[in-house]
Write a structure and sequence with these properties.
Helix content is 44%, strand content 12%. Helix 2 packs antiparallel against helix 3. With 164 residues, the protein is α+β, with helices and mostly antiparallel strands. The protein has a four-stranded mixed β-sheet with strand order 2-1-3-4, covered by helices on one side. The chain has two domains: 61 residues, no CATH class; 80 residues, Glutaredoxin, CATH 3.40.30.10. A hairpin with a 2-residue loop joins strand 3 and strand 4.
Amino acid sequence: MKVKYEYLTQDIIDKIEEYRKEFPYYPQQLIIPALHEILYKYRDIPEEAIYELADYLKVHPSEVEGIVTFYDMFRHKKNAKHHIRICRNLPCHLAKYKNLLKMIENLTGAKAGGNSEDGMWYIELVECIGSCAIAPAFLIDDDLYDGSQIKSEEDLRKILEKYR
């Protein structure tokens, strides 16, 4: 079968159909898992993918767009090779996430909400990553790090080197 979509490739459709077995009644239940598959493949949510997904699931595009704009994990703009998410919620705020942020900005050349010039890093401040016990917590791609163990830029540099 030839896929009629540009962004909704056959592998993504196959994953959606796997999810449909778990959630067969309401297509809206498939939006978030499908968006995760799109995000995993493209590192962002292309605008056209929203319309393709809505067409495929037979839902209104505003239902898909509403989810993309509500959740921090979904984004429209093309991001760098590696995505750093730093929690800024209360436990991380009290654990001085801003010090961690400054070190990350210094080492990557990116600022919160933006990409580094070399296209390697994108930094995003998020409300919660569910790791209050290791505050200030942060993620590089999907890898969780304990910010409380980082005492210097050298400690952080060692972590970042793994992604170069």
